[in-house]
User: Fold this.
Amino acid sequence: MYGIYDTTIISGQDISWLCSLVSLGAALSCFPAGIMADKIGRKTSIKIVSLLLLACWLIIGLVYSKVWIYLARITIGIVCGAYSIIIPIYLTEIVDKELKESLSMICQLQFYLGILYAYFTGFSYDLLTMALLCAVPTTVLSVASFVMPESPVWLTTQNRQEEADEVMRSLKRNQTEDTDRTNQQTGYLSVFKAHTKATIIAFTLVSIQQMSGMPIFIIYASVILDRLGFPMNPMISSVIMGFVLVMATYCYPPVLKTMNMKLLLFLSLTVMSICLFTLSGYFRLANSFDVSVYSCVPFLCIIFFMIAFVIGCEPVSWILIDKIFTSDVKRVAITGSVICNWISSFMTTKSFQDVVVLMGFSTVFAIYGVSTLMGTAFIARMIPETEGKTEEEVQMDLRGRNPEGSEIPTCC
Assistant:
């Protein structure tokens, strides 16, 4: 829309920076966000970043300057990175243990509802209207942050036990969670050095998620659909894709209960690889033949790719990351994984336009397909079985030892 209606941002490089600066800002803010949440509290941190996000949307809608738009976008990324750390911490500290298994689905569902909402704003065909509509959810959160309770876990660590007890009573809970993890300040390097194999697995899993091209399908949805020659309006097609993401989120909990996690992750990446190679072949044929009559095939490939990603690749990866680290280092490890996730997202989104210009759409999707296919080999060889195992047993598997402490024989 910038390229059509706004002359301040028109080149492909402008658009690639516009899209990728969010991920870059998020990668920069994850670690400081955790420190801020521990220093000034979860509620205050959410309040600050929500007001900052609101200001950024107003700048994007009202200020027609490339520099200001870039600054607003990277600041939005900083807020997104802060949200991705602070809000999960806050939620896990205010809800009962029985509800914690549902939190991952709730957060994922809200994320894709936000994408669907953003696609709907495109029907306004006006940048100011889009920015103001995108400012509505953060306005609601900004107002809500003034009345929602502070985390009782954080209050306890600040020796404000009476306030913590009052919050617990208002939440109708009987006791606070263990606060050891909040007080603990474990160094990143020491954690990753002590859990080398788990770190390799975690960083590889989040990199596979981003290098599969999922950020590209979300950010450049209308552009890709337009290049496919799909007869439906790209805006409507994008909304359909958004609905698919939301509905697929509801499907993964029952699927996860009926299938082994490692197998589900392997199958989802396999389906994603097939879809990506099919897309690559379509664009390759489109260079020499008129294949527009078959444009529904690549569109369906994108739909099945998204379903496989949402049901398997994304949720299972984060569940496995949670399981392969010990409780005392879990928060540091997950924060590091989130940072790696945002860095991978930045590299994928920033390079997309450059690779398209140099090699074309066919090569781009072939690269994503190869990355995803390599991910299936990595999972088959490196991911340990975690189903029905205790934390100690998982750690022994990662270290290649059996419960008695001797080496587990391997075939290679």
Observations:
- DSSP finds 19 helices and no strands in the chain.
- Confidence is low (pLDDT under 50) at residues 176-185, 403-412.
- The longest helix spans residues 330-359.
- The CA atoms of residues 77 and 397 lie 37 Å apart.
